[in-house]
TrEMBL record:
<dbReference type="Pfam" id="PF00128">
    <property type="entry name" value="Alpha-amylase"/>
</dbReference>
<dbReference type="InterPro" id="IPR017853">
    <property type="entry name" value="GH"/>
</dbReference>
<keyword id="KW-0614">Plasmid</keyword>
<dbReference type="InterPro" id="IPR013797">
    <property type="entry name" value="Maltooligo_trehalose_synth_4"/>
</dbReference>
<dbReference type="InterPro" id="IPR006047">
    <property type="entry name" value="GH13_cat_dom"/>
</dbReference>
<dbReference type="InterPro" id="IPR012767">
    <property type="entry name" value="Trehalose_TreY"/>
</dbReference>
<protein>
    <submittedName>
        <fullName>Malto-oligosyltrehalose synthase</fullName>
    </submittedName>
</protein>
<feature type="domain" description="Glycosyl hydrolase family 13 catalytic">
    <location>
        <begin position="6"/>
        <end position="423"/>
    </location>
</feature>
Amino acid sequence: MTLPTSTYRIQFRNGMTFDRAIECVPYFKALGISHLYASPIFAATTGSTHGYDVTDANKIDPAIGGRAGFNRLSSALKDAGLGLILDIVPNHMAASTESPWWRSVLKLGQESPYARYFDIDWSERLTLPILGKPFEDTLSDGELRLERDPENGELVLGYCDMLLPLNPGSAELVPASADEPAWLSNDKELIARLHEAQHWRLIHWKEAARHLSYRRFFEVTELVGLRVEDEQVFEDSHRLILELVRSGQVQGLRLDHIDGLADPKHYLQRLRAEAGPETYIVVEKILGRDEKLPASWPIAGTTGYEFISALGHLFIDGGGLQQLGTAYANIAPDMADIAAGLRAAKQLMVERNFEGETTRLVKIVDGLYPDLERAGIAAAIRELLIAFPVYRIYGSKGRLDTRDGDVLGRVVSSAAEKLADQRAIDVVARLLKGEVRGADAKEFRRRFQQLSGPVMAKAMEDTFFYRYNRLLGLNEVGGDPAMTPGGVETFHTLMLKRARFMPHGLSATSTHDTKRGEDARARLYTLSEGADVWVQAVERWREMNRDHLVELPSGLTPEPNVEWMLYQALTGIWPEDFSNGEAEALTGRFTAYAEKAIREAKHGTSWDEPHAGYEAAVRAYATALLSSTNLAFHEDFGTVMRPFIEAGYLNSLSQTLIKLTAPGIPDIYQGAELFDLSLVDPDNRRPVDMTALSASLLEGVPVVSLTVPALKQRIVEIGLHFRKRQPELFAKGAYVPLKVSGSRKDHVVAFARELNGTYAMTVVPRLMLGWLDPGVLFAGPEFWNDTMIQVPASFDGLRCDLLTGRMLEPGGELSLSALLGSQPVALIEPWEADIEEHEIIT
């Protein structure tokens, strides 16, 4: 397999086209990346901002340049010596009439050649949850109309801006003399009869949670599940993808939502066989605590969320986190029991948001075991889904493997504690183990496995992460808000495992799906170091802004839990020098985040049942925090923030250098080579000024002369070029934890990568809040005092710090006073050239 040395994620659309990307190729090369990593490029719905709503998997989207534009980009990358990784979407397509396949299914039903391409329950008419109210009300209010499709002249049923194709057999219901079908739109009986004659039926969008006849992506009804387990579906949905791979235009694939597939192992094996052994393949997969990828998957690894979680062990102070937890429990006592909070979020998903999917599972078991009480079956399925500690297991044919069998065993034991009817849970467990034969049993197993992932994702990431706000830096995709940080030793253990089991997966710190930018998260980590200051400040700020609370029937709004969350979110994005000129843009971003956060939390409001008064009160409070009239708060907030911001900058540099040198392939999210203080999407998907990025890459300027954010970009540049010079070291090299001694040993993490006598040492500080002078991103020699790094005897000889060019004497110890006493971080390699012109550090 040809491995990247690094990747750079680009979000196409929103102004980024192939030709715009071509203009950036010199910058990508100068920065040092080996592969551009592109968001989905295939035809998507009109106006798509992300490309995951694919309408034609065998057509490159004209909106970003089409095939011709792609070919130009491919040539430009090849000329620059860069590769290309494509993000592909095997799990779903757009449930849109813009999709030829979906349109055919709507028109012809089960007679369509594409009817089996989508995961549809054809025991009933295809449900389309697109109405803003029940069908009867929509019909009565005259919101449905007959007209001719302007593209082909066929009769269609119109609703809002949608034109729905009609069953050809229903044309006889329309009077032959109706040259102008719009005149018939007032005939509600005709419209109703036509509706009944279709292969589909229109329903209120709110009914989708209770009843939907097709598998969707999570809760998104606009995305319909694909049956790529079917050989023909795989072939037809991957034709262009594989053409691009085989032509040499694409060197790698990133697979979106692998856990949504019926049989990920079989899919990956076929993809590997078709794409060939040299194609680099990674999957979007969230790993639970102590979970490893199945060894049978022929891939390089994941897209790297678990790497983000590992960093939290380094940069969060355990004692301070406990202090935050105590204060938070006083502010939000209903969130003190973390296990109960997560259970409540999962129960909500199973019983309401995914009620239809759960009911379908109950029906299958009820048909297989009619002697069981339906209520007992439902309870067993509910408790099993709630008990899952990981996204899913992967049983397809035969019994579960040892790993999945162990997971299911723990799940069954946990669920059984909640149930009186043990027979029902035993039956469901046997189905999941593959001990029951037959088509219905197989369908149950498949659908349960495809449901447990969405339940976990929506409960944890899109509900609990917005309810439990102890420390927002922990509320990250793939993370655990309840985590207890284990420090340097835990981090080393995780990296040793990563080097053994997934050395070539991506290492991410920001993605298009993370809850906040990497540097906002790095700053939020520092709150655990200054917990007492933060807690006192929040009490003061709440009092200062008390007049902005709104009295609602439910009480003063926003409630203390939301206030606590808002002050943390504001911490993550607060500019170093706040001015009224920045307030307007910041307010728009902040209030949009506040509205999304409270809707995701699903307490005072939600996406499906928005509470206008509650949302208005929260938006007003968020707006007031940034109002130009709130000067006293701004001054106080800015004063408190200053040391947190500076310590956060140093955290950012530390985590950046770790990502560049730890096991895995560093992935740079667009613009995050400078400081990324974004909030959750759509904020983190804002267009990036690539011209400014290129201008800020000041090649040759000494690191000591740079300040943030250019300093971070320079470290990225040096690290990426180093990886390109030493690809084998970082692809195959061992991870070697370095022992640190002395009074400040807890404030540093040091490790090496070693291969056949070649090595690189990474040394970065941690937990530095309160130890930095204003405006200085390192602690002086006196801070480090007697702290020393013990260097392996095999690392003998002179050494050079790549970031500064300074020389280090040989020997068995490195002094932190000399190494980090005048610079933020260090990256060390053996020196193999003339040293006369270089300063030697003792």
